[in-house]
Request: fold
Amino acid sequence: MANIKIASLTVGELAVNCWLLGNEDTKEALVIDPGDEAGRIQDFAERSGWVIRHILLTHGHSDHMGGVEALREATKAPVYALQEEEVMLLDAKTNLSVFINHRPITVRADEFLKDGQKLTLCGILLEVFHTPGHTPGGCCFYCEEAKSVFSGDTLFHGSVGRSDFPGGSMSKLVCSVREKLLVLPEETAVYPGHGEMTTIGYEKKYNPFLG
Reply:
């Protein structure tokens, strides 16, 4: 069992939660959603004694991937995203970068993932859940070992992601949460793309969108 430490930085104008999972045994780390401030993310990892080996994206909106290219260039870490998100990663209008960042931002993933895929990165086992609704290729990363799920903009504390962007669907989003996330153990910590963390048990009981 890996000695996993979870840390976060709030980055960018839209206050995105960038999550870092560090393996304290190997001193390697993976980064989820480096939305901006790549230098700050790398500095944090270095101060923690970690080498960034992998970059994962929960979805392709630019506020979650604006720092990818600078971080990939600095660390040589490969970038992973769900296969269904490829079009959004490469389209500056649908990924909202021309509106949010006022300049086109595109990312070409090094490896595309599939629903249900299990991958071991930095000695940490993750399971990939395709959770469409916020975007067509949105996904969450579940780490059973750490009793944690990284939900991007799919599930928030007391809320769910927006569905009024290109490719969004509230019915698909709610279905994704119910079928993929609410079936996890209730003590599972939910680390979202914005705002404070929560648990599966809390959301099952109190989330007004899931009743």
Notes: The two ends are 36 Å apart (CA to CA). The helical segments are 38-47, 62-65, 68-75, 86-90, 97-100, 170-181, 200-206. The mean pLDDT is 97.
